[in-house]
Amino acid sequence: MYLDMDPGHDDALALLVALASLKVKGVTTVAGNQTVDKTSRNARRVLDLVHCENITVHQGAAKPLFRSLVTAPHVHGSSGLDGYHFRVPAREKDIPADAQQWLEREFSQDPDDICWIATGPLTNVAAFLIGRGEYIARIKQLIVMGGALNQGNITPYAEFNYYVDPDAAHWVMMQDIPIKVVGLDVTHQALLEPNALARFSALESEMGRMLHDLFAFYFKHEPNRRPQGVPVHDVLAVGAMVHPEFFSWQQAHLMVERCHERYRGQMTVMPGTANPSTEVAVDVDTVRFFDWMWSMLALLQRKE
Ligand code: BDR
Ligand code: CA
Question: Is the CB of 72 under 6 A from ligand 1?
């Protein structure tokens, strides 16, 4: 399984849960929550902290397809992963800026169908497939964290990942790829409760300390925090890959607004026949999802 991400607090947690539940073949990084040098460094540091030095990180797009980059320091801080002081040495020099070439090499040699999870702006995914349409038929499943049917988090209309690169998001939504879209409609249902901080600490490991400190920051900054908790958007994308039965899905033909600045990045359902290959999550069993997430963290801890 391939991961494309922009860590980011929830991306970092998603990465850990993916390591426990899937065979992660590598990570490509994209600009989004922070600039791509920072999101790449963050991915590398999280992997190293849990002793997954063998999983490679490949730096991808530094900006959206056609627009200037918008980042989210108000949510993730100036490093993209504020809150925890990484004691592991930074291995930036081990991060090649070769995401497109690496994906091509991997996909062309991989005997398996392609399973892909994208938890940042869809720039890398679109840029790759626009030039290499032959791989579209090989994609068994693409899970995307992004969009929303009836709400927004960066504007009243748009979710952050789709807002940052609406051109990439729209292009991907238009393709005949088996896509599952995990948007704010479900990520705003699944709130990580404040007692999670104590549960992270109780793991009594460096991973637990990292998660505690990262999420102590995130609990103060996530714009949709509620007294009940904070959304952990990207973790639900991993959940959707491993346990699609935790979710209710609706087939839809989706488009993403690119022209009207006010509605930039808004995801809408086009009238008429639904695209049978595109499904949007409309509901999630939050109890089963969080039970699974905690069990995956415990499993990763044992593997460490
Ligand atoms: C998405 O935006 C980012 O800030 C998060 O990492 C998540 O991927 C939620 O809108
Ligand atoms: Ca993200």
Answer: yes
- Return the pLDDT at 278: 96
The C-alpha atoms of residue 95 and residue 202 are separated, in whole angstroms, by: 32
pLDDT in tens, 125-177: 999 999 899 999 999 999 999 999 989 999 999 999 999 999 999 999 999 99
Nearest Cα neighbor of 220 from 86, 119, 77, 80 is 77
Strands (E), 134-271: 139-145, 179-182, 191-192, 230-231, 247-251, 254-256, 267-269
- For residue 234, the ligand 1 atom closest to its alpha carbon is 8
User: Average pLDDT of the chain?
Assistant: 95
Q: 47-93, pLDDT tens digit by residue?
A: 999 999 999 999 999 999 999 999 999 999 999 999 999 986 667 77
Q: Nearest Cα to 232, choosing from 200, 201, 186?
A: 186
Cβ 234 under 6 angstroms from ligand 1: yes
- Domains of the chain by range and CATH? 2-303 (3.90.245.10)
Question: Is any atom of ligand 1 closer than 6 Å to the C-beta of 52?
Answer: no
Catalytic residue among 74, 233, 243, 253: 233
Q: Please determine, for residue 304, whether its predicted confidence score (pLDDT) is greater than 70.
A: no
3-state SS assignment for residue 88: coil
* End-to-end Cα separation, the chain, in angstroms: 20
Alpha-carbon distance of 179 to 160, in angstroms, equals 19
Token pair in block for residue 287: 């109890």
Backbone angles phi, psi at 178, to 5 degrees: -65, 100
The amino acid at 125: V
What is the DSSP secondary structure assignment for residue 90, as one 8-state letter?
P
Residue 164's identity, in one-letter code, is V
Claim: this prediction has a pTM higher than 0.70: yes
Which two three-digit tokens encode residue 147?
């969009």
Among the bound ligands, name the one nearest to the CA of residue 153.
1
Q: Is 243 a catalytic residue?
A: no
- Atom of ligand 1 at shortest range from CA of 145: 8
